[in-house]
Amino acid sequence: MSDTLTKSQEIEAKKVKVNTLFKDYWFRIPEFQRSYVWGKEQIDELLDDLNYARTNHPNKEYFLGSVVLQKHLVQDKTVNFECCDVLDGQQRMTTLFLLMAVLRDLSQNDKLTTNVKEAIFQEEDPFSNQPERIRIEFLIRDEVEDFVEEFIKTDGATGDISRLKEIRQSSNVSLSNMANSMLYLREQLQELNVQDLNDFAVFLFNKVIVIYVASESLEDAFRLFTILNDRGIPLSNSDILKSLNIGEVESEKKRQSFAVMWEKLEGEFGRDEFDRFLVHIRTILLKEKARENLLKEYEKIYKAGKLQKGEETLKTIKQYRDSYAKLIWFDDDIPQEDFQLRNLVTIMKKGLASDWIPVYLAYFNKFGYDYLFEFLQRLESKFSADWILQETPTKRLSNTYGIIKGIERADSPADIIADEEVFEYNREELQRRISEDIYGKNFARYILLKLEYVLLQSNQQFADFNKISVEHVLPQNPKADSFWRSQFSEEELETWTHKISNLVLLSRIKNSQLNNKDFEAKKERYFQSSINIFPNINSVMQYQSWNVDILRLRQDSIVNKLMADFK
User: Per the confidence metrics, is the pTM higher than 0.85?
Assistant: First the structure.
């Protein structure tokens, strides 16, 4: 069978050995690629697979995966040579590059050492007009280039463990992961004896193969990139979306700038949250239920003419990121003293599904800070009411899209804020729902958070809290000889135990051992720690006893205050 699978004027695919890959080709990691993110888990899986294949099937080829490349003709001093931009496969390629450096420094075989040195770096030879050249060049990442120079290109450098551990703490994602991977590769390969290390290297160079897929056309290369992803190569949709759009930018300088921007956004959000953020933008633009993955949904956006690929998409993402930073991360544009708005966003982030965020962004994108708090009040009321009233997910999504459409129709903030149709819900049924037993309902924690928000003074800001638990003042199952049995009949216990007037939020994990303590003991040993965080606890602490009359008064007061806050 020929190694060449297909070849045409534009697209070339070959089956190549690692030895060939690192001897006959030169690579660049483009500016639009994501950071190097492999860690111990991926390295361990790779080494385990290679060692298993080497041990159990030493004469069979081991398929490592595909690399998708765009070919360029590059001039290096007086020499023209072909260089390939890595569009897919950079994690594997970078890991192999690190592995070569570790093999070089651990090898006691001169031939192996020479082999891996040539795989890493070509020395200058003026007699044959051969320039100095590194096997893989990392564009625009100066710190990564410095790492390559210090640890991959330099003999013996992978043995500088203390320096690698220092770099492992870097805030630069690529640097940190490269240092960590190099340390782990060295740690694992050091366990092999001389013969096993040689055998491992022989297998790696001669039996490990990749499918090399290359095109001179960037468009064709990105198309292949997308097709391979659909067939299961582990790339995220946001990675491909980035590549498709940056690949449309003609100016190399702008491509570099947008690549840096994208990498910064991924770092700010985190990968999962960044994908959700891209979904929010998709929701604003399409205003309909998503039925495909993120990448295909953006293709719908492009087909509908809502955005153009390339600069327009990238600038739109940056624009919404800036709005998100102001509205959700509370950048300095929102005054520190505007605690009501901040507190409302805080409870919505903590307790509601994130479907409200694209609506909030859409409003801000059109009207800015004008009546922003008033709009957010209506938005929170609608979203929380729909949830408490158990509207179906489909209906709630439909309502989301309806509000965004209402924002687009509105000529002023007053128009959308006063739009009763898009913010409509059944207030009578809502009041009935929050007046009945709420403990165990999926909205219980949120309605208690909303109560805390209502009880906060307008000049107060929520204190930081991470852990939240819902606690009964009157316990759920008081013992027969409990203090509580002397205060409440069986019927009263059944009536009041799970009402909102008997429930509080604590900034701690429940302590079941304290559940049946009497009221004074509970206040002192259990509620005191949360008094400065949740106002509702403070109100409970004012009572000297806990009985039906107090619960009844609290119930009416709490429900009335909550309903007054529903706009």
Answer: no
